[in-house]
Amino acid sequence: MNGEKILKTAFALACESYEDFRDKDMLTEWLNIAVAECMTARDIKENADGGIFLTDIYGEIRLPPYICTVAMPYAVAECIFRYRDDGENSRLMNEKLKAALSKAAEEKDIEAVY
Predict the structure, then answer these.
(1) Which of 26, 42, 49, 52 has the highest Cβ tally under 10 A?
(2) How far apart are CA 85 and CA 93, in angstroms?
(3) CB count in 10 Å sphere of residue 90
(4) Residue 93: which residues within 8 A CB-CB, separation 6 or more?
(5) Contacts of 35 (CB under 8 A, 6+ apart)
(6) What percent of the chain is predicted at pLDDT more than 90?
(7) DSSP 68
(8) pLDDT tier, 29 (very low <50, low <70, confident <90, very high otherwise)
């Protein structure tokens, strides 16, 4: 899945306008934080060279579809709320992220969640 699609979903979760967001240089970093939070042991082994991380927001993310469409937007939304110094909603997004990763692990979409 394309990083920009994840960003647009995350901004919708945060009730923020993706198009109007001024600090676009933060976006690739936030996507890479989300990738790191959602990686499994298998993903780490397969991408030991760091090739799973993005250099821009248009890159393809090589994680299972459920992770890209459900879990990663929560991880990016958490970054957006932290950026706004909104600790309560940041924690809420983190809880939703953990729940999504747990569900994925239960459904064997991924092997193990850190």
Answers:
(1) 52
(2) 13
(3) 19
(4) 13, 14, 74, 75, 77, 78, 81
(5) 52, 53, 54, 61, 63, 72
(6) 69
(7) I
(8) very high
d(CA 10, CA 89): 13
- Using CA atoms, how far apart are residues 87 and 59, in angstroms rounded to an integer? 29
User: With bands split at pLDDT 50, 70 and 90, how would you rate the model's confidence at 108?
Assistant: low
- In the numeric block, the tokens 């993005």 are attached to 54
Amino acid (one-letter) located at 109: D
State the amino acid at position 82 in one-letter form: R
Q: Is the dihedral of CA 71, 77, 82, 88 positive or negative?
A: negative
Q: What is the largest CA-CA distance in the chain?
A: 38
Token pair 């600090």: residue: 23
Q: What is the mean pLDDT of residues 35-56?
A: 80
Please check the confidence at residue 50 and state whether its pLDDT lies above 80.
Answer: no
Which of helix, strand or coil describes residue 75?
helix
Answer left, alpha or beta for residue 113, where phi above 0 means left and psi between -120 and 50 means alpha: beta
| Helices (H), ranges, 17-86 | 27-38, 41-46, 65-66, 72-83
Q: 69-93, pLDDT tens digit by residue?
A: 999 999 999 999 999 999 999 999 9
